[in-house]
Amino acid sequence: MSNPFTGSSRPAPGTPNLPTPPTGWPIGSYGTYEEAQRAVDHLADSDFPVQEVTIVGVDLMLVERVTGRLTWGRVLGGGAASGAWFGLFVGLIMGMFTPQGSWVAPVLAGLGAGIVFGLVFAAVGYASTRGRRDFSSASQLVAGRYDVLTQPKHAEQGRDLLAKLAMRPSNP
């Protein structure tokens, strides 16, 4: 188990790697992860002991961005394409173990079988939703702000370095 007073985040051998809250004092708070990353990069460039730094996302939210409408054509096309890639892979593996010169038949058989199975699985999956989710999307976990923490013995130095960074004009 890790000890919050030693500054070590490694668990003792044989203990499970359980989630633990971050430790340290805040030395900066940023609206985007890119800004927090830039701050830590500045600390590293200033010979700050960055191994003692943690970036913490606060006020987490799951953002789902809708990327398009699902139609039978898109579903079946996607199923056929993913099935084709998997079938091609299996066919190439089978082709490696066939006598020399006859690798084309296993590759074509794998490709064809992959397309058929991809179509079937995509159709069954889409039909089972019964129109309740006729869109595609991408999900992302984001934070409302990103705090940069460090151990108390380095907090004052870190705040001073980040204050100098804040006074510099940002790069375009």
TrEMBL record:
Segment Disordered: which positions?
Answer: 1-26
Q: Which Pfam family is one of this chain's hits?
A: YflT
The domain of life is Bacteria
Q: Please give the InterPro entries that the UniProt record associates with this protein.
A: GSP17M-like_dom
What segments bear the compositional bias annotation Pro residues?
A: 13-24
The General stress protein 17M-like domain extends over: 27-114
Task: Identify this protein by name.
Answer: General stress protein
Which organism is this protein's natural source? Saccharopolyspora mangrovi
